[in-house]
Amino acid sequence: DYATKRINIPGKFEYLSKALCFVREGERISLEPNSDVIALRVMPSLDKPFQALVDATSNYGHACCEQTAAIMLSACAMYSFAGDNLNRRSNAEGIIIAGVRRENSMWLKGRGFKMYPDSPNNPHDYYGPKAARYLWNLSLLKEIGRPSPALAKAIEEGLEMAKDATTAYKLDWPPKNPNNCEEAYMAVRFGNSAKEQALKIVRKYADNSKSQLAPAVNDHYYGGAVGRRAEAAFAAATLFRAGASLDHINALALTNKVVKDLGENGRLYSTIDSVAAIALMSELQAAKVVGGSGKLEINGQRVSRAEAINTADKIETINVTEGVIPVEITRVIEEDWASFNGLQIKVLLEKDGRNQRQINIGDAINLKVKLDSGYKVGDLLWVCLPEALSRVIGGGQVKKFSIDFEGKDEVAISLAATSITINREGGISPQHFAVCVRNMFEEERGASAGLLEVTVVPPNGSSSNSILGRALVAFRNLFS
């Protein structure tokens, strides 16, 4: 028996992403030489990618006021589309109840939401309103059966916060005069008074997108790829919700711009665009755009949709001759933290208050990372440790993890030196680790300090001729 595992250079990763593409009648998709696309597969339905999107968003690892509300919004979708799956419905209920409790810790009654539970009591003027609007999705659960007493109580508490915060931020609910695609979708999803204005906004956006003139996201907090995906997703969702068949062509074109960026975990880069994608996928399901038999050719051969779905052959080309066919696209994605260089960061390994890169086995040390260029909402620290260092949590040694700066310019993490940096000859040589800063809302914002060295030695500081060093080499060779 044997096992294999791919070993990555710290801060440099390779993984598979399964994104989507909706291929319409008269369109063709194929594997291209020297492309990062390695496989195509005809999907039977949207159930699995939608479930993956919802699950990944509801399991998001960080929770400011906006992210907490986004997690609850995705749990509402999980609950709504659970059908007879009681386990998924129960899981969604637990997420909502816990989310309401955490959101309540950031609620400033009559003023809005602060960013984090430990933040100063100042309402956030951008992410607070987003959280308030997300929370209104809890009202959709009232239409589904009879929620448990605990869930019913959480729904009422969440809606109370939503009502109070929208009033505090002077927001119309539903939006009466939408100004962008997100507000346009909320206007048609939760009310009908602004439907024509909403459609005018998203149709203009769709028309401009064809000529690459889609309005730039003029936003102080997020923009770039996240903003473009979010607006495109809400525009497409609005067009599907409106129900006009002529709008479906534009909506599918916008949809493809969004779902091509689904990551390895099934969601988009942030909660901002993932929430928009959940709205899009919900409306795509409800509009039944994908369905029926459809007609297509696989590798030049005419086949039924059922045959295409079940084929074991490698698919090189797909030609659609009738209907809309969802295709799963598997790509190889490479992530290199060294490519992030837009910020200035300082990294220290401290023992007894002093920066040290040579430490003793068993030492407790602090990894300190400071944002020299200053904190921006959403900044997140990623750490990839070598064999010799570990973050010990619950008895386990964690090697890759992320930490939210939560409004501060500096973060300190307790680590332990858990093994000696010994080489094959029994000598002591350094190992390398990597840290980077990424922003949870702004995909383009990041920084890395490159590969950093650390040396861990036995307690007496000796190296290759130490008894412990020779013993460790012998022990390792025994199992080589």
How many strands, what sense, and barrel or not for the largest sheet?
6 strands, antiparallel
Strand content: 15-25%
Shape estimate: globular
Average pLDDT reading? 89
The total of beta strands comes to: 21
Q: What are the SSEs and their pairings?
A:
Blueprint: E1 12-24, E2 28-30, E3 37-42, H1 47-58, H2 65-80, H3 86-104, E4 107-108, E5 112-113, H4 127-135, H5 149-168, H6 181-190, H7 195-210, H8 224-242, H9 247-259, H10 271-287, E6 295-298, E7 301-304, H11 305-310, E8 317-322, E9 324-336, E10 345-351, E11 354-355, E12 358-360, E13 364-371, E14 379-384, E15 389-393, E16 396-398, E17 400-404, E18 410-417, E19 431-439, E20 446-448, E21 452-457, H12 467-478
Parallel strand pairs: 12-21
Antiparallel strand pairs: 1-9, 2-8, 3-9, 4-5, 6-7, 6-8, 10-11, 10-13, 13-18, 14-17, 14-19, 15-16, 15-18, 19-20, 19-21
Helix pairs in contact: 1-2, 1-10, 2-3, 2-4, 2-10, 3-5, 4-5, 6-7, 6-8, 7-8, 7-9, 8-9, 8-10
Written description of the protein model:
The chain is an alpha+beta fold and 480 residues long. Helix content is 35%, strand content 25%. The chain is built from 12 helices and 21 strands. A hairpin with a 2-residue loop joins β6 and β7 (301-304). α2 packs parallel to α4 (127-135), α6 packs antiparallel against α7 and α6 packs parallel to α8. It is globular, with a radius of gyration of 26 Å. The two termini are 14 Å apart.
